[in-house]
Amino acid sequence: MKLKNIYPITILALLMLLPSQILAGGGYGLETARSTAGLPSGDIPTYLGRFAGAALALSGSIFLFLIVYGGIIMMTAAGNQSNIDKGKKIITWAIIGALILGAAYAITRMVFQVFQ
After folding, report:
1. What are the domain boundaries of the chain?
2. Which of 58, 61, 69, 114 sees the fewest Cβ atoms within 10 Å?
3. pLDDT single digits (tens) 6-45
4. H or E segment at 71?
């Protein structure tokens, strides 16, 4: 390539880099967009805490459903020992799951208190 073609290409390439350097210092108005959209402000631990609370609430609802479901299976067993055992297993595993969730909640709460 001839030398006279290299200079315009180099200058054009350098000029194309200038706007990106200027825009790198701008805030882009993200805070304005967040407040206009009505989104809550917060940091990552806040969002993780909200997510953990929602997950525990959902898990509690599932626990309640499983206890009721296991009880219904036991009540409608009509003396069938396999259905009674099935209902007992559902209730037992639901209680074990609730204990694990309680331990997970306690550990999560302890970790968040230590790091705040």
Report:
1. 3-115
2. 114
3. 778 888 877 777 665 555 555 666 677 777 777 777 777 7
4. helix 44-75
